[in-house]
Amino acid sequence: MSSSVNVIALKSILHKEIHRFMRIWIQTLVPPAITISLYFVIFGELIGSRIGEMGGFDYMSFIVPGLIMMSVITNSYSNVASSFYSAKWQHNIEEMLVAPVPNWVIVAGYVGGGMARGILVGLIVTLVSLFFVDIQIHNIWVIILTVCLTSATFSLGGLINAIFASSFDDISIIPTFILTPLTYLGGVFYSISLLPEFWQGVSQANPIVYMVNAFRYGFLGITDVSLTIAFSVLGVFIVTLYTLAMVLITKGVGLRT
Amino acid sequence: MRKALEISNLKKIYKGGFEALKGIDLTVDEGDFFALLGPNGAGKSTSIGIITSLVNKTSGSVSVFGKNIDTELEAAKTFIGLVPQEFNFNQFESLMTILVNQAGYYGVDRKTAYQRAEKYLKQLDLWDKRDNASRMLSGGMKRRLMIARALMHEPKILILDEPTAGVDIELRRSMWEFLKELNQQGITIILTTHYLEEAEMLCRNIAIIDKGIIVKNTDMKSLLASLNVETFILDLDSNDVADHSSITLTGFTSRLVGESTLEVDIDKSQTMNQIFTQLTDLGINVKSMRNKSNRLEELFVNMINQSQDAVEEK
Known about the structure:
The complex is a heterodimer of chains A (257) and B (314). With 257 residues, chain A is mostly helical. Chain A has helices at 3-23, 25-28, 30-46, 48-51, 59-89, 94-97, 103-129, 140-164, 170-184, 197-203, 207-220, 227-251; strands spanning 53-54, 57-58. In chain A, strand 1 (53-54) and strand 2 (57-58) form a beta hairpin. Chain B is of the alpha/beta class and 314 residues long. Chain B has two domains: 3-225, Rossmann fold; 229-295, Alpha-L RNA-binding motif (Alpha-Beta Plaits), CATH 3.30.70.1560. Helices cover 35% and strands 28% of the residues of chain B. Chain B has a six-stranded mixed beta sheet with strand order 6-7-8-3-9-10, sandwiched between helices. In chain B, strands 2-1-4-5 form a four-stranded antiparallel beta sheet, with helices on one face. In chain B, strands 12-13-11-14 form a four-stranded antiparallel beta sheet, with helices on one face. Classes of the chains: A mainly alpha (257), B alpha/beta (314). The interface between A and B is medium-sized, with 30 and 35 residues.
């Protein structure tokens, strides 16, 4: 197919995906703002004032990048997982499968939709955080690059989860039992340098540590890990997950009999 | 004449070993109105699934307007519009959104897509519902929405998998008219249906499939001509039928199925006049008369039975 046809198809999928989460904004955009406000009130105002400084910054400033990143991760993943599985469940994924849409366009469309929601929620959470703390920006490009790559990574993860899922339960298992523990143990609320040496080593196996730290570097200029390693980890994840998603869709796993 | 669809030795074995298609061959000419008939589980939907790439074939080849789905799948897809058996649109999206997005997947720009959506929604009497969520539609409206969606990229071949299932008679007839118009405009139409009357009314050519094998592939006229015997039901004036056992029609097989209802089998060499003459001689008046069953249905049942007998003999 010509590139212009593919561009129109990609725009249509993106339009459909963005329209979907905007139509149900009370379910998709409001809850993260409320959740993050509670985090700020409890961990920032009430408990944070007793914790003191972390990494040379007051606790509230320290946790803001991690909380924004947590929202981006959760929303990117759940957007694609629920949208793609819902399309499978209602069989309207067949609208795309019978059309001359290349598989990479389907992947890009859904991942783009997940990124759009993740980044929009990230912006909303950032705006909410301005009510609680003055945000400083150390390097805007690191912030943009990290948030884009992270949302792409977890959108791809959500897509693969949805491809394998055969019930709505299957798209909540990974967020509940894998994603949430990894996020909470990913240095959102603490610097991993505070951990005993053994647990520091264990934490380095958690990919979310690299994403949170790279993002925190963009705001505060501090990080527990090397930025080069952080972006390399993101790059490897994106290439691996994209390749897996393409193989699965091309084979028709969960889509074609 | 160009071939709209060419299927050669197509086989499908599902996981678990069920052999849904056992090597079918089928050709549909451009501009044809073609019926694919068969009982449940015969392989109709599997065939359509493979043509539209929703089902992976085990072996064989499929070409749509010369484009092989193994080597030129995307080009082949551009020719096909599919109306599936089950409702498969997003229940929460509006009709207009569904149609415009579907056109987009085929590379139709949004301005053109809105124009086409308006055209087809009006033609299919859905324009007033354009902003409603599709789940709010009645069953018949949902069927028409799927037809509109299949037409959005202006396909050259329209495949309809039981499009009038669950649709009332009036709406079914209006859909038939719409499909006839599409066919007259040059769109090749392939139809699967359980309503044999539908195939007889609409289609020029027909294939009957059973247990994954094409048992008959011919034109509708030849098929109907091969029907030797038809059964008619005569409602007799009850006042004239004093003694039931006395009604015997020479040269015909007949039977009384009620106090004043007579079933008569008539083969091609016989005429209705011969029956009326004999009944008049017996002093019996005929109040009304009708076909016992759809002709095609009778033929279809016979063929399926023959096919099953052949399988059992093997």
